[in-house]
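Re-run with default settings, no changes from the original entry. Doing this only to confirm the output is reproducible before filing.
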Amino acid sequence: MIVKAQGKFLRISPNKVRRLINLLRGKDIINAQAILKNTNYRSCEFLTKILNSAVANGKVKGFGPEQLFISKISCDNGPIWKRFKAAAFGRATPIKKRTSHIKVELDIRS
């Protein structure tokens, strides 16, 4: 682990983020940014910001983006916002608005 970045309390379901994370795991930064740029998921904008933050942290430590690769990337559940929606016959049905915590760790390709 050379460089870390994380995004917390992101308003997107963790399952939707994980399907894109599986594409990025183990890739180098240039390929990961190309995948994020050409994939049409809403989670791409969150992952792009976090990945760019990790690359900027690496530049501060003296590493270029061509040296780094994604060694660990994970998405955990954040708190769930509980809301209610009106239903038939005066009832209410619950709505769970899920949030995510995304963590990225970069390392040097050896």
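The chain is about 35% helix and 35% strand. The chain has one domain: 3-108.
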